[in-house]
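Let's practice the habit of predicting before peeking. Look at the sequence and jot down your guess about where helices and strands might fall. Then scroll down.
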Amino acid sequence: MGRGVGAGLVLAGLFFGGMTAKDMGYANGHRGDAGTLTVQDCRTQFDRVGSSRHRHARPVVSCTGTFRGDREDRNGREDRNDRNDRNGRNGSTVEDATVETGAKFEPGKQLAVQKTDHKVVLIDEQWIWRSLAIVCVSLCALVAGVFCLLTGFGARRGPVFRDAWLRVPGGTAVRAALAGTGGLAALGAGAALLLDGIV
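Done guessing? Here is the structure:
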């Protein structure tokens, strides 16, 4: 049972951490298509989140408008490679593009955004810090999962934490690696969440 818990934590850490780390490539321009969304309309919807007993409505603000990729020149002419693609898959213009913004904006407001393979995202400081926090939490889950896999900790009749910790294969070196990686990941997650609340 403990190793099953460990396997689940490892898979969850790899999946969520990997997907989030991949998406962070949009922030530095290594992935996606940078451009501008000219706002036409903003609206608030309420998503139901939480467990079946404690569900609550979370407000989600999104804005719809026209996305124009940065590949267009200053006169508004499209790059020759984009001229045949009006869906924005290779660049230039997407009508009625929608992006979650967290705040409402007046029509005509221009937002710097990134077009991914599936949607348009607003890349701001909060998005970056939140993504970093997810990566760090995923790394914590990965470390915890490896610990459970190595020791069987987490099973109903398995060893208590102290005994499992002393039984880690590889001795002091492996324990130091697990503690150091998990500790740095936890500090990183805390710092990122703190900065997410400040900026």
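How did you do? The first strand starts at residue 33 and ends at 49.
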